[in-house]
Amino acid sequence: MAYKRSQILICGGTGCTSSGSVTLVQELKKECVKHDILDEIEVIQTGCFGLCELGPVVIVYPEGTFYSRVTIEDIPEMVEEHLVKGRVLDRLVYTEKGDGHHPLSISELGFFKKQRRIALANCGVINPEDIDEYIGFDGYLALEKVLTSMTAQEVIDEVKASGLRGRGGGGFPTGLKWQFAHNAVSPDGVKYVACNADEGDPGAFMDRSVLEGDPHAIVEAMSIAGYAVGAQKGYVYVRAEYPIAVHRLQIAIDEAKEYGILGDNVFGTDFCFDLEIRLGAGAFVCGEETALMNSVEGKRGEPRPRPPFPANKGLFERPTVLNNVETYANIPKIILNGAAWFASVGTEKSKGTKVFALGGKINNTGLLEIPMGTTLREIIYEIGGGIPNGKEFKAAQTGGPSGGCLPASLLDTKIDYDNLIAAGSMMGSGGLIVMDEDNCMVDIAHFFLEFTQDESCGKCPPCRIGTKRMLEILEDICGGKGKEGDIEKLQELAEGIKSSALCGLGQTAPNPVLSTIHFFRDEYEAHIRDKKCPAGVCKALLDFKIEEETCKGCGICAKKCPVDAISGEKKKPHVIDTEKCIKCGTCIEACPFGSISKA
Amino acid sequence: MAKSLAELKAIREKKLNEINLRHGKNGYRVVVGMATCGIAAGARPVMVKLMEEVQAKNLVDVTVAQTGCIGMCKLEPIVEVYDSNDEKVTYVHMTPEKVTKVIEEHLVKGNVVTEYTMTVVDGKVIDTTVKA
Q1: Last residue of some domain: A308, A343, A378?
Q2: N- or C-end of chain A: fewer Cβ atoms within 10 A?
Q3: Cβ B33–A124 below 8 Å, yes or no?
Q4: Does the structure's ipTM exceed the value 0.90?
Q5: Is A103 part of any domain?
Q6: What CATH number does the domain containing A44 carry?
Q7: Which one, of B64, B118, B69, lies nearest residue A103 by Cα?
Q8: What is the CATH number of the domain that holds A567?
Q9: Record: contact A124-B89, CB cut-off 8 A
Q10: Chain B residue with the nearest C-alpha to that of A357
Q11: A337 with A382, same domain?
C-alpha cells in the first residue's frame, strides 16, 4: 500500500449513516480529486463510535482532530483548510464536553473508574506462566500465613467472617460450606477439594479469564481450602474448550510442584496437598455440582439427588468442598488482608466484588469487576459506555440460561444476590448480556430454553419432557401459531418444572421464560394475538415490503437478493415476491434509500 | 527444587524489584494481553515482534511479558509499557508494524507514540479500526 499522509475516519454506524455520513464520503473524495490529493489520503468508513448524538463524526489522523455534526457543505472547506493547508477547522471541532484526547493509560477510562479489582487483581498485570511473578505480587504468602500461623478452624472462621458467597451463581456462604466439609467424618479420613471451572453460560468468560490470567491464585486458594477442611487432594474440572486456560493451569501446577508448594510437607509442615486437572467434554449439566462429581469420577455426567450433599458425600463418596473459580480467586486476598477488609466492600448481605462478562448491545464489551451494590445503570452506561448506534436499552440478561431479564424500570437495582432474585433473575456466574430495542424478548426466551432443552441430561422427567413442551409452545408463538392460553400454559409448566426437577439446570431453566413473560407480556401478546413481532426478529411474523414512493428502481436489492425474490424494471419501483423471500434482511441493508421495511 | 519460606521471600523481593523496575533504574516492562481475547485479535505476532526487536536492538533494560485479560476486549491487542515509576502507557489495536515505531520512539528514545494510544471523546473510546 502506498504511503498515505492522512487518514480520515468517517463513522459508518447506523446512527451516522442516517444523518448522512455516506454522502460525506462521496463529497470528500470528490473534493480530494479536485485538489489532486486523493492519492495521499485514505478515507475509511468505520463502525459505530458510540457518539451518535454528535454524528456524523469525522476524525482526521495523524492529528486525531475530532469533527462533529459535519454537513456536506462543510466538506470543501475542511479539505481545503485541513488537508491542503494543514489548518484545523476550529468551528467544527467538538469541544462541548472536552475535546477528543489521548489518555496515556487505559486505567484513566470511565470503564475502569467504578471497578474494584480483587479477584482480577493480577489479571492483565503479571505473567501467568511465571510463578516468580505471582510470588512477587504476594503470591503464596496467604498459604504461608495459613500453614504457619493459623488453625484450620481459624481459616474457616476468617472466610465465614468475610461474608464471601459462592460466585458460581447460587450464592451459598463459602465459609459455611467449608465448615460442613471440615466437620464431616470420612470413613477413611480422605476428603477432597474441587474447583468448578466448567463455565458454560453463553457469553460468559469470567472463569476463563482468571485461569488464563492468574492460575496460581487457584492453586493457592485450593491448597488453603485443603488445609481448612483436611483434604490432601484437589481436582480442577475445566472444560476442554478452554485450551489456553488448561495449558496455563497445568504450567502453574507443575511450577508449584517444582517449588514444593504442591506435594508432601509443604513449607516443611505436615500439610500435604496435590492437584489434578480433569477435562470436561462440554456438557452444560456438568457445571452442576453433583453431575460434575460424577464426571470427575469417570461416570456419566448426570446429577445425583441431594441430600447427601457434597460436603458429606461428594467425590468418591467422601466429604468434598466444591467452589467456583472466582470464589477461590478471592480467598488469598481475604486471608492476607483480613475478613474485615473484604466485608467492607459490597452490600449488607453480599460482600466483596463480582466479575461480569459484559456483552451484547454494549459499546465496551469486556471483563469487569465491580463492588456488590453497583447499579445496573452504572454498569451499562458508565462502565459499558452505553448502547451502540443510539438505540434504546430494553433489557439486561443476567444469570445466563438460569437467569432472567431486567427491564429499563429496574436499571437502578443495586446488583447483589438477593436483589437480583427479588427481581426475578439471579446473579448466575456473571454473564451480563445487554439487549436493545431490536431484540425480541420472546425470541430471547426461546433461545435460552432451546439451549437448556438441548443440554438437559434427560435423567428426570420434569426437565426432559417439561422443557421440551415449553419449547414447542415458544416455537409456535414465534412461528405465528400461538394460541390464547399459551402464556398461562407456559407459566403452569414453568412452575411445575421449577418445583420438581432434580438439579439446578431444570429448576432454573424456566426462569428466562417466566421473567420475560413478567416484564414483556405485551410482546408475547403481540405475537399471539396480532401475529406481529414488535422488534422485527421472528421471521415467520415479518413481511418485507418495498415502499413504492421512495424506491428509485436502482436494482441494488435485486442484485443482492440471494434467492432472486426481487424483480422490477430499471428506474421503476421494485417488488418482493413474498413466496420466495427468505426474510434474510440483505435487501434492507443494501437499499441506499431506506425504502425496504419489515413489519 | 522445593523452596523454603526464606527462599520464597527472596524470590518475592527479587521479582518485585524486577517488575517494578525500582525507582531510579532505567528501563521498561512491556506486557502484552495474551488471554483468549487478545490472542484471537492477533496478540501473538505482536508479542513475537516485540521480543525479536528488543533482542535485535539489544535493549537490556526492557522486559517483555505476556499477561492475562486486561479487560477491554474490543481494544485488543493491547500492549502496556510500564516505566521505572510504575506509570503505564496503554497502546491499543497493536500490530507488528506498530511495534517497530513503539520500540524506536518509546523504548529507545522515551517518547510516547500518542497516535497509537486511545482516542477518547465524551468519555467514549473511539474505535478507529472497525470498518463498517
Answers
A1: A343
A2: N
A3: yes
A4: no
A5: no
A6: 3.40.30.10
A7: B118
A8: 3.30.70.20
A9: no
A10: B71
A11: no
Is residue A586 a contact partner of residue A560, using CB atoms and an 8 Å limit?
yes
A144 vs B: CB within 8 A: yes
Query: Which amino acid is residue A441, in one-letter code?
Result: M
| Co-location of A363 and A338 in the same domain | no
B62-67 and B28-33: which strand pairing?
A: parallel
Of A310, A343, A376, at which residue does a domain stop? A343
Report the greatest alpha carbon distance in chain A.
Answer: 89
Q: Does a structural domain hold residue A97?
A: no
Write the pLDDT tens digit of every residue in B25-45.
Answer: 568 999 999 999 999 999 999
Counting Cα atoms < 13 Å in the Cβ hemisphere of A498 gives 14
Measure A110 CA to nearest chain B CA, in Å.
6
Q: CB-CB: which of A13, A101, A365 is closest to B120? A: A101
Q: Are residues A292 and A218 in the same domain?
A: yes
Q: Are strands A575-576 and B88-91 parallel, antiparallel or unpaired?
A: unpaired
Closest partner residue to A47 (CB to CB) among B2, B31, B127 is B127
**Amino acid at site A119:** A
DSSP A466-481: IHHHHHHHHHHHHTT-
Same domain, A324 and A372: no
State how beta strands A41-46 and A6-11 pair: parallel
The alpha carbon of residue B30 is apart from the nearest alpha carbon of chain A, in Å, by 10
> pLDDT per position in chain A (599 positions), as tens?
456 788 888 887 767 777 778 888 888 889 989 988 888 888 877 766 667 777 788 888 777 788 888 888 999 999 998 988 888 888 888 765 445 567 777 777 778 888 999 999 999 888 999 999 999 899 999 999 999 999 999 999 999 999 999 998 889 999 999 999 999 999 999 999 999 999 988 888 999 999 999 999 999 999 999 999 999 999 999 999 999 999 999 999 999 999 999 999 999 999 999 999 999 988 999 999 999 999 999 999 999 999 999 999 999 999 999 999 999 999 999 999 999 999 999 999 999 999 999 999 998 888 999 999 999 999 999 898 889 888 899 999 998 898 999 999 999 999 999 999 898 888 888 999 999 999 999 999 999 999 999 999 999 999 999 999 999 999 999 999 999 999 999 999 999 999 999 999 999 999 999 999 999 999 999 999 999 999 999 989 988 999 988 898 999 999 999 999 999 998 899 999 988 999 888 998 888 888 898 87
Task: List the 39-68 stretch of B: residues with Cβ below 8 A of A.
Answer: 39, 65-68
For residue A452, give its domain range.
Answer: 441-529
pTM: 0.86
Identify the CATH number of the domain in which residue A493 sits.
1.20.1440.230
With an 8 Å Cβ cutoff, are A102 and B128 in contact? Answer: no
Q: List the alpha helices (DSSP H) in A214-357.
A: 215-229, 243-258, 289-296, 325-337, 339-343
Nearest to A520 by CA among A404, A374, A359: A404
Chain A residues with CB under 8 Å of B82 CB are: none
The answer to whether residue A113 sits within a structural domain is no
For residues A12 and A72, membership in a common domain is answered with: yes
Omega before residue A308 within 30° of 0, cis: yes
**Total count of domains within chain A:** 5
Q: Under CATH, which number does the domain B26-125 receive? A: 3.40.30.10
User: Is B37 within 8 Å of A358 (Cβ atoms)?
Assistant: no
Q: Are the C-beta atoms of A565 and A581 separated by less than 8 Å?
A: yes
Please spell the DSSP secondary structure of A315-348, one letter per residue. Answer: GGGS-EEEEEHHHHHHHHHHHHH-HHHHHTSB-S
* Block residue for cell numbers 468508513: A45
Among the residues of B42-83, which ranges form H helices?
43-56
Residues A513 and A549 in one domain: no
